[in-house]
Design a protein that fits this description.
By secondary structure, this protein is an all-alpha fold. It is 68% helix and 0% strand. It has 14 helices and no strands. Helix 5 crosses helix 10.
């Protein structure tokens, strides 16, 4: 398979009908590393909205079980977008479980839409900057339709219809709502501690600065975080650009090796009942 063969295959699909297949193929074969990093950044951006940061701080999950909270998010998103996606029973079951978790809390429609918008917009912007190639128009539309589908099944209202509408909503929401709070800061620091934990102790200060190098000024101010040294920002940017060039020159990922999520909390694998707080299982039994 040539480097751009899979792109040509994706462009032969219909992003209005085959959007789940396009998104899955792109995520598992074309941009698995980039999508994971950009979704981590998307999640991180949501902490800068006080209504979101304060809720996450109140639950205590990032402070007490940060790695599990991160892994649960990765697992749920994977289950909803893997082969069959939301047309498969397992994908629908994952979405029902996510809705049960969210249903315990008072979350505004706009906050839900903002989180959804980060999952659409941040990966497109990341891949435009650091991907081995930019997303094609088919992939952008497929990602938009995939998360629109998730949003509809979450019962959200006034979901943007196009990528451009999602991007405009995200930019306006951040401009209006990014405000510092102590809760934002605590959740951000707890999340950085998760990322640091993936590295040997002597590399953790560098890992922290690496996270900071990927943040912009409004985000840092709302989270109460310092700016990384300018030289590190430049180094991180150039390293990601070099990585993109190297990946472009590599052969494509074989069809026999789709990227699967790596969940440190579940080294032996997981079931849907493992995902989320323990109380979700009791709630599910009461509502079954």
């Amino acid at each position: 398979m040539a480097r751009y063969t899979r792109l040509r295959q994706l462009q032969a699909l219909d992003p209005e009908r085959d959007y789940q297949d396009i998104f899955r193929i792109s995520a598992e074969y074309e941009f698995p590393w980039d999508l994971q990093r950009s979704l981590e950044l998307a999640l991180f951006r949501t902490f800068a909205v006080p209504s979101i940061g304060e809720l996450l701080d109140h639950t205590g999950e990032f402070a007490g079980q940060g790695q599990k909270r991160y892994d649960d998010t990765v697992a749920l998103l994977y289950e909803m977008t893997q082969d069959g996606g939301l047309d498969a029973e397992r994908g629908r079951a994952a979405l029902r479980r996510m809705n049960r978790i969210h249903g315990r809390y008072s979350i505004s429609n706009d906050d839900f839409l903002y989180v959804l918008a980060t999952f659409v917009v941040v990966p497109v912007r990341w891949i435009a900057e650091y991907g081995w190639r930019p997303y094609s128009r088919h992939e952008v539309r497929a990602a938009t339709n995939t998360f629109r589908h998730i949003g509809r099944l979450m019962g959200l209202k006034e979901i943007p219809e196009t990528y451009e509408e999602f991007a405009d909503f995200l930019d306006r929401y951040e401009e209006k709502n990014y405000t510092y709070s102590d809760a934002n800061h605590r959740v951000a620091e707890a999340t950085i501690a998760i990322f640091e934990g993936w590295f040997p102790r002597f590399l953790r200060p560098l890992a922290r600065r690496g996270v900071l190098a990927m943040t912009d000024a409004p985000l840092r101010q709302a989270l109460g975080l310092p700016r990384a040294p300018r030289v590190l920002e430049i180094a991180a940017h150039r390293a990601l650009k070099l990585r993109a060039l190297a990946v472009r020159l590599m052969p494509p990922r074989p069809s026999s090796r789709p990227k699967k999520p790596y969940t440190r909390s579940y080294p032996g694998g997981y079931t849907l009942e493992d995902i989320g707080p323990a109380w979700v299982n009791d709630l599910g039994r009461r509502t079954a």
